[in-house]
Amino acid sequence: MRNILVTGGNDGIGKAAALLLAGEDSSIILIGRNRDRGAAAEREVQAAGGSAKFLPADLSTVSAMRAVAAEVAEEMEHLDAIVHAAGGVFSQRRHLTEEGLEQTFVIQTLARFVLTQELAERLHQAATPRVVLVAGGGGPDKELDLSDLQGERTHSFFGSMMKNAAANNLLTLALQSHHAEIEFFNYGPGLVRTKVSMSNPLMKLALSTVGRFFSRSPEEAGADVAALLSGTYPAGFYGPGPKPNDPSRLRANPGLSEGFWDYCHEIVDGIR
Q1: How far is CA 128 from the centre of its chain?
Q2: Nearest-CA neighbor of 79 among 118, 45, 46, 109?
Q3: φ, ψ (nearest 5 deg) of residue 254
Q4: Is residue 104 within 8 Å of 164, Cβ to Cβ?
Q5: What is the separation of C-alpha 165 from the centre of its chain, rounded to a whole number of angstroms?
Q6: Measured on CA atoms in the order 156, 159, 165, 166, is the torsion positive or negative?
Q7: 183-187/51-56 β-pairing
């Protein structure tokens, strides 16, 4: 039986992937903020044939990330896969968490760094561990200004989306470098009609107008995630399909990903 952790598993892409993986002899831990939706998702995954447990957690603080990682480690002696599906742009204005960090960056990017690091020992116990970051899939392929990554000087809704997609690209490369025994997949699902997306006025407008012609359902994106975990795809960057992408410019400058790795470590090490 495979042990799988899914963040954002109470809704959207995370839940869609969990429902598909449930039928593949999997024991799944779902992490989400909403207890009612989490409990409902737990029942759905169990009805689909899998073992499931919901753990409520607000991934907007490093302390909460560490706490839920400890719970997962208690539940599972080995971890075959992590699906980092929790995310979204949560405010058009820059919003700081109680730890003084920008909220979107924390949930969309830093939580993935922390949970993977905290659970690396459990992943190393699995035969073929895999981690999927539901992110940009390799694009945009651009350099990041780490001094403005959290919108310290400039912040906008779409700007934050682009920065966190690029940050996840760097995080994926850094994780590949530091955990060679684990297969990492960065998957960009494209424009997806999730409840989180539809709850934002700008995204709802886009999805209700021109976006409705090329957007995808959570179930379609979830099927791609399940395929990456269950198929013979090589580790790397993927778009919808899943089709492989190659962020060649980022690969050509490994110092970018190492700089981002150090940036995340400095933040996390400063919070105890």
Answers
A1: 19
A2: 118
A3: -65, -20
A4: yes
A5: 10
A6: negative
A7: unpaired
Dmax (CA) of the chain:
49
The amino acid occupying position 134 is V
Phi-psi region of 236 (alpha: psi -120 to 50; beta: other; left: phi over 0): left
C-alpha 67/C-alpha 248 separation (Å) is 36
The residue among 149, 41, 8, 29 whose CA lies nearest residue 80 is 29
pLDDT in tens, 130-185: 999 999 887 755 677 888 889 888 877 777 888 888 899 999 999 999 999 999 99
Q: Which residue carries 């001094």 as its tokens?
A: 147
At a CB cut-off of 8 Å and minimum separation 6, what does 161 contact? 89
Q: Residue 160 corresponds to which tokens in the numbers above?
A: 């934050």
How many angstroms from the chain centroid is the CA of residue 41? 18
Q: Which two tokens stand for residue 179?
A: 């955990």
Q: What is the pLDDT of residues 239-262, one digit of tens each?
A: 999 999 987 766 667 788 899 999
Q: What DSSP designation does 259 have?
A: H
- Structure tokens of 99? 């730890």
